[in-house]
Amino acid sequence: MEEQVNRLVAKLWEKYEKTPRSRRLLIAVSGIPGSGKTTLAAKVTSRINALYHDQSPGTSCGNAIAAFVPLDGYHLSRAQLDAMPDPVNAHDRRGAAFTFDGKGFLELVKELRKPLAPETKTVWAPSFDHKVKDPVEGDIGVSPGMRIIVFEGNYLSLNKPPWSDAAAMMDELWFVEVDFDTARERLVKRHVKAGIATDEEAAHKRVTENDMVNGKEIVDDRIPEVHEVIVSKEDEAWTPERQGMETATAPGG
Asked: Residue 244: how many CA atoms within 13 Å on its side-chain side?
């Protein structure tokens, strides 16, 4: 994985150096549940910021050039799922595309796509609180100085609106590819550890009835013209960069 991360960081840095100062570089990292996309996106964001500080002596350690924005914050809340025509199914399928606020995510991308100007303000995105199992509005700040935005989520390369509309505004679409058996192993362990499933049998049931159903849609209906396909294999490097980022109540990286 390290070789892949290094190559992608070098590619992004080269593009960043050629990008006008009035424009942000937007990258969307997608893949099926359990693919490792969260890990990859977090590592790339961290390395870009480290490189920025290395290349910019005197820059405060608190300043970042890259921001990490996961799709988790756009989960519909439990109250919104309760209000759906079939709330039981909505909760059971939490993590499916219809249980996300795709239009809200599109509006965020539109806002970040606007040219940077002296009057540009910090843009706020929601995060996801894994303890209360609901989004937290306005929790991730993207300041005007953050010119590389790394988005991450299952549906960021889905060839259906509004996801495809957001994808069309990205500078790079990356897809993390993994075989379904490897993803299943990762998800079963994750669901048990996070308390989403009581045991491995229950975890396998959830993976079969929800995660893999979502995964099939993600693969079958993927935008064909992605810029990068990164193969995720079973090794220690594909463990989460930040604990908790892959333990949502619904599929993560």
From this structure: 6
